Amino acid sequence: MAFIDCIPDAEINADVQAMYARQQSFWGFVPNYARVFSHRPEVMGLWAQLQSGIRRHMDRRRFELVTFAASQALRSTLCSLAHGKALTTWFTEEDVVTMSRGKVPASLSPAEAAMMDFARDVGRDAPSVTAGDVAALRRHGFSDAEIFDIAATAAARAFWTKLVESLGVEAEPSLKEMNGTLQQALVVGRPVDSAEWPKPAAERPAA
Fold first, then answer.
1. Taken in order 37, 161, 103, 115, is the CA torsion positive or negative?
2. Which of 54, 95, 157, 190 is in Cβ range 3.0-4.6 Å of 105 for a Cys bridge?
């Protein structure tokens, strides 16, 4: 489930129990990523506060588009799968596959396409972003406050993906069972099946 050992349920304290309960209430189960936070449940609380503060100013469609674009640029299969699946609330699977290839389906507005390009740039190489890139978003009608929200969403995703990917958090079964064509398009880093992940040198067969 992860590269680090999670605290057994029988040994978790009240803070972890409360964190698990919140996850259970929202998802209907305790996700794999939540279990790695058994060591530091207060960090999960801080992450939730950050996400809540950012999302408060965006509708869910915009948040998911920006998060998906950043997740793909950051090569996080886990987040690409989760937020690609979320996008099927508004888009067909075919359109999500198109977006995963950096192309623009007809269901995406020019402003949304520009927003996703900006989010990819933030995720891929933030120092490469220029004043001209920001000006381009303004021309699409985004206010400076909205541009801040877009940048904050993409930047926050960098923290999350680097944490869960570096600790080897596995995708949930529902993501592993996703439509094959869609799943294949959303795999941008590690394979979905952990059995296919590269093995540590000590575990590799001798040449």
1. positive
2. 95
* pTM of model > 0.70: yes
In this predicted structure, what is the pLDDT of residue 205? Answer: 59
Cβ atoms 83, 67 nearer than 8 A: yes
- Calpha distance 65→85 (Å, rounded): 11
CB 69 within 8 A of CB 154: yes
Burial 20-39 (b: 16+ CB within 10 A, else e): bebbeeeeeebbbbbbbbbe
Nearest-angstrom CA–CA distance, 147 and 111 = 12
Residue 197 three-state SS: coil
Stretches in the chain below the pLDDT threshold 50: none
- Enumerate the domain spans of the chain: 12-56, 59-193
Q: Is 141 helix (H, G, I), strand (E, B) or coil?
A: coil
Instruction: Name every residue whose Cβ is closer than 8 Å to that of residue 107 and which is 6 or more positions away in sequence.
Output: 90, 91, 92, 95
- Topology of domain 59-193 in CATH is AhpD-like (1.20.1290)
pLDDT digits (tens, 9 = 90+) for 92-111: 999 999 999 999 999 999 99
